[in-house]
Amino acid sequence: MSEAPEEGSVLVISAPSGAGKTTLCRRLLDEVPDLDFSVSHTTRAPREGEREAIDYHFVSQAAFESLRDQGGFLEWARVAGQLYGTAHHSVRAALGQSRDVLLDIDTQGAAAVRRAIPDAVLIFILPPGPEALRARLEGRGSETPESLARRLALARGEVEQAHLYDYLIVNDELAAAYDRLRSIVLAVRSRTARQKGRLESIRRRFMEPAG
Fold first, then answer.
1. How far apart are CA 8 and CA 85, in angstroms?
2. What number is the average pLDDT over the span 162-189?
3. What is the pTM of this model?
4. Separation between Cα atoms, residue 114 and residue 12, nearest integer Å
5. Closest CA to 38 of 95, 83, 122
6. Which residue ranges make up each domain of the chain?
7. Cβ contacts of 155 within 8 Å, gap of 6 or more
8. pLDDT tens-digit readout, 69-89
9. Is 93 exposed, middle or buried (0-12, 13-18, 19+ CB in 10 A)?
10. What torsion do the CA atoms of 63, 68, 71, 72 make, to the nearest 10 degrees?
11. In degrees rounded to 5, what are phi and psi of residue 55?
């Protein structure tokens, strides 16, 4: 009989734009139970199809800075001139219900989470190479030459940080990349530290006199 874990884990996923992170995260959230997505706050404008409180909490710079100055963010960073942050309360609420929390954040944010929560699990999604990343970004049809160059330059810096993560997944084939990502989540849930209550219950039964 399946039992809920005693406490949830924080799972951080980072990747260069265009590496397939959003697609992988959405499938993971659809198919893996007891997993919550931490919706980040941002000062940037919504993109086409994005929804408030689903993709992001879209806020003004003044509102973001006010929450930041009150210590309301687990992590925050400025990326491409816009502010992004993960609210403390959303992470605490999920962990308090024995659920895992998925954070989709950049390398700056991941480093901040690692400092605040040392046992957070950090996962980096890599494209198979710069050529593939460029092709994926161009395939969106929404990048200007300037924004494309900016995203590729940012990707170089992000890839340089990949060795600091606990797990690396090369997304050269989406189905295989998803299988690896799901396997990591299941392995995290099987850690001895996550199964202490269940282990103790079974151990006590072994200590009972044989009937």
1. 21
2. 96
3. 0.86
4. 9
5. 95
6. 10-38+100-206
7. 16, 17, 18, 19, 127, 130, 133
8. 999 999 998 887 899 999 998
9. middle
10. 60
11. -90, -45
Strands 73-79 and 35-37: unpaired
Side chain identity at residue 152, one-letter code: L
Residue 42: closest CA among 24, 54, 29: 54
Helix axes 21-31, 174-189, angle to 10 degrees: 50
Give the strand pairing for 41-42 and 35-37. unpaired
Count of beta carbons in the 10 Å neighbourhood of residue 55: 17
Q: Give the DSSP H or E segment for 149.
A: helix 145-159
Rounded to 5 degrees, φ, ψ at 34 are 60, 40
Q: For the beta carbon of residue 150, count every other beta carbon within 10 angstroms.
A: 14
Q: Which homologous superfamily is 10-38+100-206 in? A: P-loop containing nucleotide triphosphate hydrolases (3.40.50.300)
CB of 12 within 8 A of CB of 91?
Answer: no
Q: Note the pLDDT tens digit of each residue in 103-146.
A: 999 998 999 999 999 999 999 999 988 888 888 888 877 778 88
